[in-house]
Specification:
Length: about 400
């Protein structure tokens, strides 16, 4: 069976599929150098001269031969496109009807209330009055991704397709799990790197993950239990299948105990999953495919979370317009999503991904910073000020 993997960026999931021995063809916007060397890949930008849109992916897919389709980032926001992509093919992913439920905060907040899932108060257009004079609020796209289009609310009416979320103090985190619509298995917890200027990212922009979530031993067990319960409730309420992710803020209750507040459901392969694969040695794409035959792994996160070492990925953003140098040796330096030499990358756009491993969380973070500095030097940018890490 030949599987089309499609999305805005598909390199990480394509690597997993290739390691699992699957026959895949990939279609995304970037068509990065390392991906084209790994699997058959087509780029909207390079091969079809198209800008990025879900509709463009659909149009380009019609020239490709495949029997099944798996989707990655951003297509969860376009269930109508998924419906057309899946026509006449096996869909290895959540169905359009599931996506409509899981990505609709009008539905999701009802699920959270019914299932007693902690979450920030979330308001829809027309409900803004409830937020006035009651703390800080974030305005975000209802179907957001990567932290784009998010800002602190300054009052005024919400535009169409936006929501308000109560600002929760705490650590930005993510979780990954695999589900069959009834049960699920928690695969990993990571710290999210958000708006880190040390990596060139703007405020609220996602720029990486570190695994595992660094917490004292008694607390990590509590958080694993709480997040597993959230994943189980979402699986049953939304009929989630395959690999999925959730974003949450790890806050504290009045007694100082950790509480995960659900912020987002990502009903598809997520960026943190390549760290799970690296750290725990499980093939995430294989777990994804097998789940559609009702097979879930006998994996225990409690037994694996205390393995030694921390694993990180950082998205390095250009801080000024840059032209890429020769990049042939970049993969050997622990880089992924590698651009082609001569490629022009605008300021605030991603240059590449860097991977790092350390004995401690701080050691892993410092290696990500060192890797970022090296990338900037090679593309002719001055290095960022490392600063401190107090606000992570």
């Amino acid at each position: 069976m030949r599987i089309l993997i499609v999305g805005f960026s598909t390199r990480a999931i394509a690597e997993s599929a290739a390691r699992g021995g699957y026959n895949v063809v990939t279609l995304d916007y970037f068509g990065d150098r390392d991906q084209k060397e790994l699997v058959e890949n087509y780029s909207l930008m390079r091969d079809f001269q198209l800008g990025f849109s879900a509709k463009a992916l659909l149009v380009a897919s019609r020239s490709l031969n495949f029997q099944a389709v798996a989707y990655a980032s951003s297509l969860e926001n376009h269930p109508d496109v998924i419906e057309e992509l899946a026509e006449g093919h096996t869909l290895l992913g959540n169905s359009p009807s599931i996506l409509r439920r899981a990505r609709d905060w009008g539905h999701l907040r009802l699920v959270c209330r019914q299932e007693n899932i902690a979450h920030p108060v979330t308001l829809l257009p027309g409900e803004e009055e409830q937020a006035r004079g009651s703390g800080r609020w974030v305005s975000k796209p209802a179907r957001s991704g990567g932290g784009h289009g998010i800002s602190f609310w300054r009052g005024g009416a919400l535009g169409k397709g936006r929501v308000l979320q109560e600002w929760i103090e705490g650590k930005a985190c993510s979780a990954a799990f695999v589900a069959d619509g009834r049960q699920c298995v928690l695969l990993g917890l990571t710290e999210q790197l958000i708006g880190r200027g040390e990596l060139g990212a703007l405020r609220f922009t996602w720029c990486g993950n570190i695994l595992p979530l660094s917490l004292p031993a008694p607390e990590i067990g509590t958080v694993i239990g709480s997040v597993r319960e959230i994943a189980e409730k979402l699986t049953r309420s939304c009929d989630l299948r395959g690999v999925n992710g959730v974003d949450f803020v790890l806050g504290r209750d009045e007694a100082g105990r950790p509480v995960p507040y659900l912020v987002e459901v990502n009903p598809r392969y997520t960026a943190s999953m390549e760290l799970i694969e690296w750290a725990y040695g499980t093939n995430v794409f294989d777990l994804h495919v097998r789940s559609f035959d009702g097979e879930l792994p006998s994996f225990s996160l409690r037994e694996n979370v205390h393995r030694p070492g921390f694993y990180g990925k950082g998205i390095i953003y250009a801080r000024e317009d840059a032209v890429m140098p020769e990049t042939a040796g970049w993969r050997a330096k622990g880089r992924r999503d590698i651009p082609f030499p001569g490629e022009k990358i605008e300021a605030h756009h991603p240059i590449c991904t860097v991977l790092a491993q350390g004995e401690t969380r701080e050691g892993c973070w410092r290696r990500l910073l060192a890797a970022a500095e090296m990338v900037w030097r090679e593309v002719g940018e001055s290095a960022a000020n490392e600063g401190d890490d107090d606000h992570i």
